[in-house]
Amino acid sequence: MMVKNTRRKPFDITAAGYFVSHGKVILVYHRKLKKWLPPGGHIMKDKAGRFIESPEEAALREVREETGFDVEICSKRYRDYDAADEMLAVPESMHIHPIDKEHDHLGFDYFCRIKGKQTESKKQEKYRWFSEKELENYPHNATPELPGHVRAVAVKAIKKLAVVE
After folding, report:
1. Does 4 reside within a domain?
2. 3-class DSSP state for residue 157?
3. What is residue 160's three-state secondary structure?
4. Is 5 domain-assigned?
């Protein structure tokens, strides 16, 4: 497969978590972009611009903030070769997608499992549970938009995670 680099712009790094309950996946309404997206967001940086959390830590934090659910990542981990290294979970999906004329997002998507009951969150967003059929039948020209990669990864999450609920 050829690498596609036709529009390289600066990018922010983001992480998201897909999780399933009762055969449905949760998606959050992003008000600014007017899109259904998995709960997720930017990886935190310090004042010097260095990252201060891993993609998986960001995904867990964002899921909790946006939905009130505590989840755990259920992806496999890279093999540990040295005790000094922290090996990370393998993302289900990694992608670069456009945000605006100035920048893109490099996204890490993880599949997660709910750990406990939902709690109230100050930053909680509007969300909706989608079934596989609802995802597949969601109109391609609808507002809010359901991006193609979100639709595909969400369907994959239902197929993979509904089995282990």
Report:
1. no
2. helix
3. helix
4. no
Q: Which domain holds residue 36?
A: 11-164
Total domains in the chain come to 1
The amino acid occupying position 129 is: W
Q: What is the CA radius of gyration of the chain?
A: 16
> Tokens in use for 13?
């790094």
Per-residue pLDDT of 104-139, as tens digits, reads 899 999 999 999 888 876 666 799 999 999 999 999
Give buried/exposed letters for 1-17 (b at 16+ CB in 10 A, else e).
Answer: eeeeeeeeeeeeebbbb
H or E segment and range at residue 13: strand 11-21
- For residue 43, the domain's CATH number is 3.90.79.10
Q: Which long-range contacts (CB under 8 A, 24 or more apart) does 42-47 make?
A: 42/12, 42/13, 42/14, 43/13, 43/14, 43/15
Whole-model pTM above 0.85? Answer: yes
Q: Assess if residue 3 is contained within a domain.
A: no
- pLDDT tens digit string along 28-87? 999 988 999 999 999 999 999 999 999 999 999 999 999 999 999 998 888 888 888 888
Question: Is the dihedral angle over the CA atoms 123, 69, 96, 91 positive or is it negative?
Answer: positive
